[in-house]
Automatic annotation (TrEMBL), chain A:
Gene3D superfamilies: Naphthalene 1,2-dioxygenase Alpha Subunit, Chain A, domain 1 (3.90.380.10), Rieske [2Fe-2S] iron-sulphur domain (2.102.10.10). CDD domains: RHO_alpha_C_DMO-like (cd08878), Rieske_RO_Alpha_PhDO_like (cd03479). Residues 418-430 have a biased composition (Basic and acidic residues). GO terms for molecular function: dioxygenase activity. The keyword Oxidoreductase applies. PANTHER family: BLR4922 PROTEIN (PTHR21266:SF59), IRON-SULFUR DOMAIN CONTAINING PROTEIN (PTHR21266). Keywords: 2Fe-2S, Dioxygenase, Iron, Iron-sulfur, Metal-binding, Oxidoreductase. Pfam families: LigXa_C, Rieske. This is Aromatic ring-hydroxylating dioxygenase subunit alpha. PROSITE patterns: RIESKE (PS51296). Residues 27-133 form the Rieske domain.
TrEMBL record, chain B:
Residues 2-106 form the 2Fe-2S ferredoxin-type domain. InterPro entries: 2Fe-2S_ferredoxin-like_sf, 2Fe-2S_ferredoxin-type, Adrenodoxin-like, Beta-grasp_dom_sf. Keywords: 2Fe-2S, Iron, Iron-sulfur, Metal-binding. This is 2Fe-2S iron-sulfur cluster binding domain-containing protein. It comes from Azospirillum oleiclasticum. Belongs to the adrenodoxin/putidaredoxin family. Its cofactor is [2Fe-2S] cluster. Pfam families: Fer2. CDD domains: fer2.
Length: 439, 107
């Protein structure tokens, strides 16, 4: 439970707000490279309550500019991509990826107007199929060398989707390990062989138990939360019997991402990026530690529920997320199908556009959420004092920011930490791209 | 409505008018009194609304329950004879002149 003032402090991210100022100190995912594979190479981007246009020019360079044309403020996302830049359809002004004005064709011959006009442009970087942009002050921070950035293109796959609610409640579901035993409960286990590309559906390391069964039958996990260099590590233990403990190691990468296991082979790194105070995009990079990822299958599976071009889910508030009371009785705990992404979407969107945290009651299983809010408070204070916040990395610091370990398996040794550390180290040693252990 | 006085860590005093039936913790959170966390929202799972009851002019505080007593053993600051959890102190008619001190730390 927090005050309204504190809730506003954490959730409001527009220009000039404390949290908006914090989040502007980091590279933010703004688009998928796959979005530029079609015939239209210009996208409207809305990030942290501000409007931008993102385009790829003829030379393959990405440019992200303020969206309103500096002439008379028409929307450049409807622009013409030609002559080395983006041309406003209103009066033909042309801008390159750096925001330089190249032509103002309605002006008299010899006009130097275009030399005096500049559209604000923002740095962009492509990493693992995602276009990142930096809209904050000064020099952008260095990228950490996390697994999802270190793995080659063949071993990663990126996707995104819109959730119609505030970014923080969406991130908070990623630091709440207890919900998986309820929200994602299936009454029957599926054949793990048919589970490619799906979370919580396969078996896990060192056991034949389907993960669906572990979650269903062992619903009071012991949760450990440890502050680490990248944010928080959560260790969730489910004691199966005297000899066996299911362990799941997940992470918060400050300020806005979580890194969790999807299956023994693949991890999920997921950012929750505010569109504005009431909407956020999740951007996920799937990273394989074994073979290349079957991107076509992964993309097809996800486009079925998050269609192009908006990536807005077909199940949403307007159709009660496809809720089926018969299914809820017979097959799933929630009654909204077998896609766990939809379950999380419902949980977050049903809390309202911004969760009213003056009305919540947290339990001991919410300790990850409590630890994160403390961390967020501390970093907000740092930024207010003009200091550099956590994970706003220098080029010297970035190479040490590796991993992080995210692991799911069943320990029989009784030394759970040694078990997951050794399991992770072995998986990295076996990875064809040489994943390095967290520093 | 009951006026409750909080003595903050810097020694300053803040008076909050708390509606009947609402707890000292809720009154503190909703009015942004610094030093009271109340993370669990009053369901007796966190012990981060610890206060020292300094004085009470009239009325009686609710007796301490077993759960509250157990949680007070684990508070971050020193437990003293006048330690209570703010979530268990409800504003009630007749309660007058309640003064509580915020401890040095809650976590």
């Amino acid at each position: 439970m927090i005050s309204q003032k504190q809730n506003d402090l954490y959730t409001r991210v527009g220009p000039g707000t404390p949290c908006g100022t914090l989040l502007r100190r980091y590279w933010q995912p703004v688009a998928l490279v796959d979005e530029f594979a079609g015939k239209r190479q210009v996208k409207a981007v809305r990030l942290l309550g501000e409007n931008f246009v993102l385009f790829r020019d003829a030379a393959g360079r990405y440019g992200m500019l303020d969206r309103d044309c500096p002439h008379r403020n028409a929307d450049l996302s409807f622009g013409r991509l030609e002559h080395g830049g983006l041309r406003c359809p209103f009066h033909g002004w042309l801008f390159d990826a750096d925001g330089n004005c190249l032509e103002t064709p309605a002006e008299p011959v010899g006009s130097t107007l275009c030399k005096k006009v500049r559209q604000k442009a923002y740095p962009t970087e492509v990493r693992s199929g995602v276009v990142f942009a930096y809209i904050g002050p000064g020099t952008p921070p260095a990228f950490p060398e996390l697994d999802c950035f270190a793995a080659p293109d063949s071993h990663t796959f990126a996707f995104k989707g819109l959730w119609e609610c505030n970014w923080l409640q969406s991130l908070e579901v990623g630091m709440d390990p207890a919900h998986a035993s309820f929200l994602h409960r299936f009454f029957e286990d599926e054949d793990p062989e048919a589970s490619y590309g799906k979370q919580f559906r396969s078996t896990t390391f060192d056991t034949d138990l389907p993960i669906t069964r572990v979650l269903r039958e062992y619903d009071r996990p012991e949760i450990g939360v440890t502050p680490v260099d990248h944010g928080l590590r959560l260790t969730t233990l489910r004691r199966i019997d005297e000899a066996q403990t299911h362990v799941r190691v997940t992470n918060i990468v400050f300020p806005q991402a979580f890194v969790i296991p999807m299956s023994p082979e693949v991890t999920i790194s997921q950012w929750h990026v505010p569109v504005d105070d009431h909407n956020n995009f999740w951007f996920t990079i799937f990273t394989s530690f074994t073979g290349p990822i079957d991107k076509a299958t992964m993309r097809e599976q996800r486009l079925a529920t998050y269609p192009e071009p908006d990536y807005r889910p077909i199940r949403n508030r307007s159709n009660s997320w496809g809720y089926d009371p018969d299914e809820q009785k017979a097959a799933t705990f929630l009654g909204m199908g077998f896609d766990i992404n939809i379950h999380d979407q419902w949980a977050c969107e049903s809390q309202g556009p911004i969760q009213d945290r003056t009305r919540e009651h947290l339990g001991t299983s919410d300790k990850g959420i409590i630890a994160y809010r403390r961390m967020l408070s501390r970093e907000l204070e740092r930024v207010e004092k003009g200091e550099r916040p956590l994970m706003c990395l220098t080029p010297e610091e970035a190479p040490a920011m590796r991993g992080p370990v995210s692991y799911d398996g069943v320990d029989r040794s009784g030394d759970v930490e040694r078990y997951w550390r050794e399991g992770d180290a072995k998986r990295r040693a076996d990875a064809p791209w040489g994943g390095k252990v967290e520093a | 409505m009951t006026d409750v006085t909080f003595i903050l860590r810097d020694g300053s005093r803040e008076v909050v008018d708390i509606a009947e039936g609402m707890s000292v913790m809720q009154g503190a959170i909703l009015n942004d009194v610094r030093g009271i966390d109340g993370e669990c929202g009053g369901c007796l799972s966190c012990a981060t609304c610890h206060v020292y009851v300094e004085s009470l002019e009239a009325g009686e505080l609710p007796p301490m329950g077993e759960d509250e007593n157990g949680l007070l053993d684990g508070v971050a600051a020193e437990r003293r004879p006048n330690s209570r959890l703010g979530c268990q102190l409800l504003a009630a008619p007749g309660l007058k002149g309640l003064v509580v001190r915020v401890p040095e730390r809650q976590v």
